[in-house]
Structures are given as C-alpha cells and as structure tokens.
Design a protein that fits this description.
It is found in: Nucleus. There is one protein chain. By secondary structure, this protein is mostly beta strands. The protein has one domain: SH3 type barrels, CATH 2.30.30. The chain is about 5% helix and about 40% strand. The protein contains one helix and five strands, in the order βββββα. A hairpin with a 7-residue loop joins β3 and β4. The N and C termini lie far apart (about 30 Å).
Length: about 100
C-alpha cells in the first residue's frame, strides 16, 4: 500500500469519516491507496436528526472514493461506546462547499 498522510498508522483501527456530501461513516480501516480511496469493514453510517436519536445504518464492507472524503479521524472506541446515541440530537451535517 502507498503511504498516505498518516493513514498507515490507522489501519485495522476504527475511524470516523465525514464525506463531502455530509455523511458520517464509522468503520475499521482496512486499506487505502495513493488517491486516498479507503476501504472500511464493519462500517455504519450515522444519520443525525433534531427530532430523534442518531440512526445507524449498517453498510458492512464499504469503499469511499478519496475525492469524496472531507475528514478522516481516529475514533476513541471507549468514549464512543459510552455515548447513548439514542438520546443524542443534532442537525444533519451539511455538504461541504468548495
């Protein structure tokens, strides 16, 4: 695999990805390439709402094109496990405007 900006250290770890269209996807980073296309396993999308808790849509093995990625971050699994997503209210993320 090519070395991306810090992604190699995140392989086989749970990461959080925000896409340019405002989606929030969480999964285990399995691989990436020089264009920052990434492969996530055991992934799910978190859909935010101001009226009900966060919905988690199961995606499974998922590929995200590098040109659609806005932010990639390491996820603190312990902190994330302690969140009660059913009680969390938030506005849906808006698309990134370039």
């Amino acid at each position: 695999m090519s070395s991306g900006p810090g992604l190699q250290s995140l392989v086989d770890q749970t990461i959080s990805v925000i896409t340019n269209d405002g989606r929030h996807i969480v999964g285990i980073l399995k691989g990436f390439d020089q264009a920052t296309n990434i492969i996530l396993d055991e992934s799910h999308e978190r859909v935010y709402s101001t009226k009900e808790g966060v919905q988690q849509l199961v995606l499974g093995l998922y590929i995200i094109r590098g040109d659609n990625i806005s932010i990639v971050g390491e996820l603190d699994e312990e902190l994330d496990a302690n969140l009660d997503l059913s009680k969390l209210r938030a506005h849906p993320l808006k698309p990134v405007i370039h």
